[in-house]
Amino acid sequence: MVEIKNPLYDTAAPSTQALHAADHLQVTPDVAAPITVSTIYEYSSASVTANNYGPDQRYVYAREGTATTTKAEAALSTLTEGHAVLYGSGLTASLAVLVELKPKKIAIGHAYFGVKKVIEQYQGLVPGVQVVGAECDYAGVDLVWIESPINPTGEVLDIEKYALRAHAAGAKLVVDATFAPPPISYPFRQGADIVVHSATKYMGGHSDLLAGVVVAKDTKTAESLRYARYILGLNAGNLEAWLLLRSLKTLPVRITQQSATAKRIVALLESHRRLAVHTACHTPSAEQTSVGKAIHGVQHASLQQICPPFDVARQHPHGFGAVFAVNFRSKEQALFVARHLKLHAFATSLGGVESLVDWRHGWDVTAEPTLLRVSVGLESYEDLAADWKQALLALDDHERKQAAKL
Ligand SMILES: *Cc1c(COP(=O)(O)O)cnc(C)c1O
User: Fold this and answer.
1) Has this prediction a pTM greater than 0.85?
2) What CATH code would you report for 7-249?
3) CATH class of residue range 252-404
4) Which of 66, 156, 187, 227, by CA, is between 20 and 30 Å from 272?
5) CB of 320 closer than 8 Å to CB of 149
6) Is any ligand 1 atom within 6 A of the Cβ of residue 160?
7) What is the pLDDT of residues 103-130, one digit of tens each?
8) In what order do the strands lie in the sheet with 105-108?
């Protein structure tokens, strides 16, 4: 059995794992992994079917695996507490899960719209596949697919609850944990059978690579996934794998910092919203009204009503993730703010070191047109807070000028 993972780092801290979990695959004296781009390798003199992985790694053809891909998978496997297989994108990884499990009836909840499109493609290939909601009865369901935290609000689901329900029905639970990579969440601990990540987001973290990961609990499933990847050519390229390997080294520090800043920005925007509201014991100042009156609501796991027995602290020992949503009173307000935030790029995607703001309705018509999704980067809290304030004040100024014209 092929073993890529080095169990030596299983109990190390995430930041140590991120730096050293692929060291055993380093066969040259380079401290930084070399960039290798070859798609073909000379046959070993001993045997052309030699072990393709491990310290004596010998590769034949890139679709079967490459040194860089394997290193990225070693680091990913240790970090995710499973056996990781790397793909060309998050959606390719989702397709690979369907090819592996061959479900006949899928229960899927709030999920990335692209994943639902992949399931439609699968339904086109395999007639008779049914799709129901994740809250429906699981009779006949063989695959339950959930996402946590969910897009675009950053709110979390009780993974254990879905695992218990899925397993009681004889179904497998797949968790798309793109919004909460390790050490933010570890869905196997709550009973997930397979974990999926779009590595394009936090794992890559610099908005410069497209990749996806499927993490299996056992090597046998990982091997089966790897075989189908080889047959179907669903691989990530060598350069992307190298960028990912490099990015993973800072994943734990990036995501915990981004997550902590996000929680503070969420609290700030929620306080701006509250302070603009007249109550029996609070009369908003002129500035409080100007800053907060356009904010209709803020959504993030840190503000979510959590009902027992969901132990959210157990599911999220190091934070909730760095994506949240803000609802404005109108679509025009949302778009104005998106265009006037200076430290936030108005662009899609999430998980990069630069803060981003996206108008999800443009991508997914089921998202409210008044909603902005925010992905908090590594800028300081103070600078991001000032950026929000100037954008909200610019909106107030704009609205006053519009009103004066009427
Ligand atoms: C982006 C994303 C995907 C798709 O990943 P790609 O790398 O863009 O193919 C899947 N799930 C979630 C939650 C995502 O955010």
Assistant:
1) yes
2) 3.40.640.10
3) alpha beta
4) 156
5) yes
6) no
7) 999 999 999 999 999 999 999 999 999 9
8) 83-87, 212-216, 194-198, 172-176, 143-147, 105-108, 130-133
